[in-house]
């Protein structure tokens, strides 16, 4: 059995482990409830909201300091109401 030194893992180096960990931490987080999304959008660290309209759904993405939170809504009327109830100081960008 090979002896492992500090910073080396069986699958590779410490750098590989750190890169994988940072990749997993930077993945978007899915929010299921509209209320939870609004609470997240009202946080101090929320920077902007992107709204992506598709044929079948509307995606709302709020960028906070650590994660990108995503809410998917299939009802167009609910999506329009949510858009109107976003905090006024938050930068909103609509994507095609």
UniProtKB/TrEMBL annotation:
GO cellular component terms listed in the entry, alphabetical order: cytosolic large ribosomal subunit
Signal peptide: none
Keywords, alphabetical: Ribonucleoprotein, Ribosomal protein
A single BP term in Gene Ontology: protein-RNA complex assembly
Superkingdom per UniProt: Eukaryota
GO function terms (MF aspect): structural constituent of ribosome
Stated family: Belongs to the eukaryotic ribosomal protein eL38 family.
Listed name of the protein: Large ribosomal subunit protein eL38
């Amino acid at each position: 059995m090979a002896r492992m030194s500090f910073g080396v893992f069986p699958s590779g180096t410490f750098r590989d482990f750190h890169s994988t960990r940072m990749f997993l931490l930077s993945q978007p987080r899915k929010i299921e409830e509209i209320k939870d999304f609004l609470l997240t959008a009202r946080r101090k660290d929320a920077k902007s909201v992107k709204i992506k309209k598709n044929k079948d759904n509307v995606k709302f993405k709020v960028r906070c300091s650590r994660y990108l939170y995503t809410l998917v809504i299939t009802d167009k009327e609910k999506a329009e109401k949510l858009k109107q109830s976003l905090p006024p100081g938050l930068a909103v960008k609509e994507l095609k």
